[in-house]
Amino acid sequence: MLRRLKIAVWGLLIAGAALAGLTQLGWISSGGLPRVEVTIGGPFELTDHNGNRFSSKSLEGRPFAIFFGFTSCPDVCPTTLLEMSNQLKRLGPAADQLTVIFMSVDSERDTPSHLKAYLANFDHRIVGLVGSEQEVRAVAKSYYAFYEKVPTSTGYTINHTASVYLMGRDGRYRGAISYHEPEAHQLAKLRRLMEGNP
Amino acid sequence: MRRFAVIALLALALLPAGAHAQKQTAVKEFVVGPIKITQPWTRVTPDASTVAGGFMRITNTGTVPDTLIAGTALISHRFEVHEMVMDQGVMKMRELRPGLVIRPGETVELRPGSFHVMFIGLKQRIKLGHPFKGTLVFEKAGTTEIEYSIEPFGTRVPGDGGQPMPRTSETGQHQKKSH
Prior knowledge:
Chain A is α+β, with helices and mostly antiparallel strands. In chain A, 36% of the residues lie in helices and 23% in strands. The mean pLDDT of chain A is 90. The termini of chain B are far apart. At the A-B interface, helix 2, helix 3 and strand 7 of A face strand 3, strand 5, strand 6 and strand 9 of B.
């Protein structure tokens, strides 16, 4: 009688352990959806608005915000640059730990010196980056950021993702600020980014 | 009698000031055929900007649709008519060809983030207090001269005061409040 009980208990324990193990491995669904990991972001190296090479390695261990645009953009880009400048001011001394990057998707027209002149009206801490078509395309792709050149009767314009990507100290994507998001929300997101909270 | 004369003289003296004040706040309107163009405006842009947007309200008081097909501005080499649409987080700007249609009885507002005209290839910086002239060409109504008033940087609605430019090229420093 006792022996049968022992066998039963052991059997149950082993079965239980096996189930737990198989669930961990994902062979058996624990009730949720299969996990798919998409990595937003990635290493990059381009030229900054001072004409120096700028590598994402220099951002290791520090949070940063990055958005894509171009200087012939009449609304979204100046507005985003203005809003980010305002947020940097509101963050106070902590803002020095946050790098804000404006990456140009207009390799044809935006040169480092042009970008520097354009950024002269905004917070001096904002970093402008330019690169070749290939370099820029690779970075935008890693961020799942969309852009497309559209011809017009006198030249071309570029449609582009209007969001600001927020990247944590660990280099991982932490969220985004949408265009025209209320400034209080923007500030809260940036503060959480700096504190390291998701 | 003398007191009356003094008062009358004072009133007369102040009249031009009153009229001048009225001119400053009057909203500019331009008419060509059944098309009425109200308050064309633009705003100061970052120093190194090569483009700027122009905004206004266009009303068609007529009985047939008309289209804004072209224009000019003294401030720029080129001029285009655009629409802006936010499509799933992507800001898309599209040149309207043949142009912007104004239906009979309709008022279309050209404003930041929506329809606008584009000044491309700025010949000089857009400056407060320096309005500039331009033309608008309508398919049916024809061409009219208009004038763009200048609003501060960051204005979204005329008169909202805009936003301070974080840095100005003159000082190269963060803008300080001055009175």
